[in-house]
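Box 3.1 A note on notation
Throughout this textbook, protein chains are presented in two layers. The first layer is the amino acid sequence; the second is a token string describing backbone geometry. Keep the layers aligned when reading.
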Amino acid sequence: MKQQLLSLLALATLSASAQNAVIRDQFTADPTARVFHGRVYLYPSHDIPAPPTVTEIAGHPAGEWFCMADYHVFSSDNLTDWTDHGVIVSQEQVPWGKPDAYSMWAPDCVERGGKYYFYFPNAPKSGRGFAIGVATADSPTGPFRLEPEPIKGVMGIDPCVLVDKDGTSYIYWSGMGIRGARLKSNMKELDGELETVSFPQGGSVKVGGQQMAGLPEGFKEGPFAFRRGDWYYLTFPWVRKEKGTETLAYAMSRSPLGPWDFKGVFMQEHANGCWTNHHSFVEYQGQWYLFYHHNDYSPWMDKRRSVCIERVTFLKDGTIQEVKPTLRGVGTTKATDRMEVDRYSAASTGTTIAYLDTLNRFRGWYAALPGKGSWVRYGEVDYAPLRDGAYAVVQVRAKANTSLTLSSGKKLIARIPVTVITERGGFRRDQSNQWLTLTAPLTVLPKGVSDVTVTCEGESVDVDWVQLRNRPDYFTAVPAGAAPLAPDADGFIRRWTLLEPVRHEVRSNIVLTENYLKDMVAKEWPKVNVKRGKWHTIESRTYNVRAFRFAELTGHEPYHSLFWGTAVIVCPQELQQVRLAAGSNGASCWWVDDQPVLTLDGDRRMVQDDGVSQRLTLKAGHHVLRFCLVNGPGLSDFCVRFIDEKGNPINNFLITR
């Protein structure tokens, strides 16, 4: 594999965030978003593959057309994490509907008087075209009770209901153009007379409301109406004749039923030629959002769509600034969650994305950075969940065999040295595609909300995700000037200053004889006295210091490693006839004030008081306890304390830095 270098740079600028598409385990389309009780509820349609027994849907070959059998409802309080509350209405439950029509298209749901009214289209059991049904509930998530008949006078699809400030409600739908009508207070009937409309090919129906005047020529559907200030907005998918696929367009009026002043397009046709778009607007916590759909997870079939979200800006005159689709979407991602950097906010020229699994596209994508200097930026990451005083690590899933760095401006946050692909140690390898999950510590903790930028400094690199994690279970960092620490109740020393481990190949721990250790220490100790690596003062949360976890935290291989450490002991009075008692997984050597006092050789397992020194006298004052621990294929840890003649712990001393 080519040598590469990845850098992750945490930048201070803010940007729109969350990851499109927002529902990632099923197809969702035609999204209507509503805010109820401070939470966003999403009512989409549900694209599914046609069952094998279904050959035709609405006059089209089933495998080439929209296929929808039920509705789910989702909710979120941050627009990033969505809860699926399950199916609320399915086609076989609709008393007046054809139970196998697979035509449950765009729905809506509104609240009035403490009740929730769910509106949906379906093909009726008899007659032609579509009708609009109503279901009611006492909760936004149901259970919903279906009305026995559809709304009289509404023949069409894509219902939308606007509840005005005075409580008056209006319904809009697609059928013989875009139509609108006032609803009665029961929210289930049109308020007004029905008129007879004749079809050119023969026959007639009674319809209510009126056709919305002032809209452009061309195919229109999916109306969504809302009020902002004194303006009413009628928005809709619109096909411009010269393009052939849907834009999102809008008109404005001072009246809920027009006439309308057409303003133009606020979202262009999808760049990949996806035929449909369908949408809704919602204001949440002072910000307006556009919910829409795209065929992100189904590039081969634009009848399988997925919901996306973008922020919306209104200009001073009330018009809508053009909304451009992004991969990143909206919402803040916790640094401790996986940041799927392929859903980037911005990227350098030449950066591409590709599916992780073309047989299961719901697994998502990865970002392919083509060469040195190429980058992707992932916006609005919240670093607050990373706590001060706890070791934090960064994990990166990438196709790389090199070093990775995490920086903030000019400050180095983390480094991940990887020189060989290995299936052991702190790095995991997926045999099927050679992805590596790499781990390294954060040496600087970012604050607040900022960006993460992944930069390639080698020839090329593929990156799936980045995640930062607290690792408080094993160690806490000890700052300079920290107060001295007593041993724990059992006398174990938990504060140590450890050198980042050194690579030391050991085929088997059996070779770690006393002579081997003596020769190794004579060779290696002089190297420690020159600046060989970084030292860390830590406190272990367990009596046994898990050296292999320390190796992972510092981005080193926990196997085949050589560990050095010291503890400064402060005795307030002389301690006589004490012994050093130690246990270690792997072989270890122990010194007090540079005098060797204990050696644990051979293939050891960490056992309390596995080895005990000769009697020692620790005079009042400072003493330096030093150790060297070496291990081959095992996971290294150790425990150390001083004991008296009867084996009881000695704990009337302090450990300082």
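The first strand starts at residue 5 and ends at 11. Residues 1-17, 418-433 have pLDDT under 50 and may be disordered.
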